[in-house]
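[job 4471] stage=fold_predict status=RUNNING
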Amino acid sequence: MKFISTRTAERRTSAEALFGNEGAGGGLFVPEVLPELTQKSLFELMPLSFEERMARVLAMFADDIPADLTKIAKDAFCSFDDAPASVLKTEEGLYVVELFHGGSGRAEDISLAIYARLIAVVKKNALLAYAGRPLAARSLLEAARGVDGVYAIAFYPSEGDELKTRAACVEGDNVRAVAVDGDCSKRRLLDALKGLESEATVVVADSCAFLRLVPYIACFVSAYCDLVQSEEIEAGDEIDFAVPCGELALATAGVYARKMGLPIRNLILAGNANHATIDLLNSGEFELPSCVYDTAEEDFDVYIPENLERLLFELSGRDCGLVREAMAAIKCGGFSMPADSLDTDGIIADWADEEDVKEALFNAFDLDDCLLDVHSATTASVQGAYCEDDVPAVIMATHSPYLNARAVLGALNCKEKDSLKAASKLEAVTAMEPPSWLGSIVGSEAPKQTIVPSAWMGNAISAFLEEAGLK
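[job 4471] inference complete, writing structure tokens
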């Protein structure tokens, strides 16, 4: 398979384009031609395990990478608490896919577990580097820990929610967690990497690489297959999928799954108070927010979604010129495009406020005995406004409720200010089993953090590489 850039005519092989966007002329790589999910290929996937389906979907995009993809998928998910994409029926015609059974309780665990293992096949001594939120740092470090030929360093703010900062303190011979006093942004990380001399191949581990989307495409496909296998739907039936926005990795993967031929009637994209992307899909206008509201649904709270450009490219009919103009205009505050320039047929975009989220979370637990986190409750709230009795709907649940137990408890009319105590209380109130890794965080002393000022991030990277023998 060949890949092209969203901005130029550059072409690359999958081995060159899947792991990052170097050489894309400032844009993002996308498949030149999307593989097709025919009725025959879907039938072939039906009896397979999730790992085997994952391998088949990976093979559609990584056809020139010499790897045993089935083994990679099995190795990637062997430590998960449960099936990586469990499908639960909450009521007639409504289903939840739990994507949060990995090492950080987030859907990102699925994507990164594949990414870390596949990059080891292609790039010698890959160093995956990240700076940002502590749970995302944990996700990267857990994905890379113990993988031969891969190293990972993750920076996260030293101050913040105690449960989350504790969670980021992952230890391992090939991984390093570093707390930062000061600026802990991706831009600061890029500055720290400038001029780095090392035998490692440095890769910034954000959600922009196309390989970060492919496992999510497989999750859509697998969920559909599971519904057919369990006789909830018949092969060929169209269904709705509801997904959160945020960085748009999962949402864009849903767009690709639909374009490839998965029978998705509507892709329902949900947002919160930070709804610039929702406005874009409804009006053609993207206004750069003057500020990003801090909400309980923190993964929605983004400035410019990392996959916005890729989504624009696909919905604009792959118009490179339009994408270049739009992304240049963002730097000046935003852009506006004709209403008919984006093909949003089959896409519903809306947002929910805090009260809507609380109501959806409470009702899901009270009426359906289904415990959602605040991100998934946001998605459920929006989906509920567009549901139709004769069309099955699937909510993609991306976060464990334990990651923001205080907000979940609040929606259930319980209060607890301390995040560690809230996690314990949530188990007592709901009887939902917490992630296996959470016990060591809640029931132990705070781990010792390695803390550096932001100006020393480069030094921390150099020291880690020297210890690994790659300096």
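[job 4471] summary: The chain has a mean pLDDT of 94.
[job 4471] exit 0
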